[in-house]
Design goal:
Distance between the termini: 37 Å
Strand content: 5-15%
Number of helices: 6
Largest sheet: 2 strands, antiparallel
Radius of gyration: 20 Å
Order of helices and strands: HHHEHHHE
Number of strands: 2
């Protein structure tokens, strides 16, 4: 079975979907914070321990969302599921939580170098971004599994 690598634009669209979902959750956290404290900021750089905790929660939300979802049995975030793509190792198998975490943290490098690491998915042979190369992962189109037909599923001819 030939692997069909997910291209740059498909991956980008999945990321946009994921970001919309995560920003919606962050807005809910912000709203709860505002209603409870009257504070409009969520920041790590304050002397207010509540704001610092909320800032840490928001950071962990992003890290855990991607790491847990991409190492799950679905091998995909919600955005990737919508676009029918998934993250695998080079053998096509599910990646571990630690590899998914490393993959997520490697995205920081791509951000630091003006997002060029993300753009690499547009021109590399296996459509890998820099974080995929670092984590030894692939993003592939999810092939639907063929259902086997049982004895009762065949139509009888007369």
């Amino acid at each position: 079975m030939k692997k069909m690598y997910a291209g740059f634009w498909k991956r980008f669209a999945a990321l946009v979907i994921d970001d919309i979902i995560l920003v919606a959750v962050v807005l809910i956290i912000w709203l709860i914070n505002y209603l409870a404290t009257g504070n409009t900021k969520i920041s790590l750089g304050t002397n207010d321990p509540v704001q610092t905790i909320i800032g840490i929660v928001v950071i962990l939300l992003f890290i855990l969302y991607f790491s847990i979802m991409e190492s799950s049995s679905k091998q995909a975030t919600l955005g990737k599921m919508v676009l029918k793509i998934k993250v695998t190792d080079y053998s096509g198998k599910r990646i571990s939580f630690l590899r998914a975490l490393g993959r997520y943290l490697a995205k920081i490098i791509s951000e630091i170098i003006l997002y060029i690491g993300f753009m690499m998915a547009g021109w590399t042979k296996k459509k890998q971004a820099l974080h995929d190369k670092i984590a030894s992962t692939l993003v592939v189109n999810d092939q639907p599994r063929k259902k086997s037909r049982g004895k009762n599923s065949k139509k009888r001819r007369k």
